[in-house]
Design brief:
homotetramer, 111 residues, mainly alpha, Substrate Binding Domain Of Dnak, Chain:A, Domain 2, 4 helices, elongated, Four-helix bundle copper-binding protein (chains A, B, C, D), Csp_YhjQ (chains A, B, C, D)
Amino acid sequence: MNPQLIQECIDACLACLAACEHCASACLDEPDIDMMRGCIRLDRDCADACAFTARLLMRGSALHPRACALCAEACAACAEECEKHAAHHDHCRRCAEACRACEAACRRLVA
Amino acid sequence: MNPQLIQECIDACLACLAACEHCASACLDEPDIDMMRGCIRLDRDCADACAFTARLLMRGSALHPRACALCAEACAACAEECEKHAAHHDHCRRCAEACRACEAACRRLVA
Amino acid sequence: MNPQLIQECIDACLACLAACEHCASACLDEPDIDMMRGCIRLDRDCADACAFTARLLMRGSALHPRACALCAEACAACAEECEKHAAHHDHCRRCAEACRACEAACRRLVA
Amino acid sequence: MNPQLIQECIDACLACLAACEHCASACLDEPDIDMMRGCIRLDRDCADACAFTARLLMRGSALHPRACALCAEACAACAEECEKHAAHHDHCRRCAEACRACEAACRRLVA
């Protein structure tokens, strides 16, 4: 385990968790909520995956490579959806960026 | 600590967690999602409060009376909102019932 | 998705969550805590994996097969450790059983 | 809600979460684990309370003042125990500091 990669991944997971929690709440306030259903749904899963993964990394769990693989998938799915709304909603643009950064940080710990 | 009250509260928290997770997802599929914003929001908080409280109870934490007090508040708020939609959405009716049962079980462990 | 297999897996995850939370706390009370280090460590990871997976299943998340695969791994690792102590500690014996049941229920949702 | 106090509290909760997860794992590796039982136990509760509270704050939940009150209690209890071991274990010293900082940040959001 490379301590710097671990720390970077923890930081990316926590930033992504914050972005997803905020994006879900902001989507629930949008006039065009009808378009944001998938985004809210994926924010929820991605936030849970990031929190779970960050905690395993913090405690040095041997399960972390598997959690990182799952978290990367959750981030990729959430980013793909948020990117569709990035031009209209700043919270989606920032969430997509946090998801892509977390996806990359997680993938570095899978291989 | 009365073991029977503890077990009943764990069961009520887990039933409420399941009802809230299901209700949030079902609300995200409803044609009238515009009306369900508050419900989705409160389902999310209530689910997290129930999961947190159930785990403290399972592990015999000294923090459980405070968690039960908070969980009862979260359940009451979610039930109040779900009850508004109970006539139209079966998932809201069932969620409101699970929230009220969990609120009662939690309150028995606060006093 | 087969609703009966989903429900059985949710139930198995929640039973395993309860067993792991209880086992960790009970291990922390054991006179031979020196022998229980690995058990406490794995109980913690397994409890988190079970809670995470149960919630994804409850909400009908598309991420659930990956979570079930990860949860099965966490359960297998925890069961293997708890089985070493099953003859001496009833909480470990019951935890190992709950882990094996959850591992099996999760594997049915991976394939 | 004061956005700066909210952000400071989120940051304090996440720093405390990381310190508690690390401290619990480090305690599980200590030769004098017999002395660290209470520390591991309280680290676990405090980590869960911090994660729960941080997420409510991130999503702008109305439940956050109650969560902050509970989190402050969890932090105070964990700090008190960790401070007993601060002279011998660096992870306990750092955990106690993170707990006290988080307790203070949470209390600012209760009143």
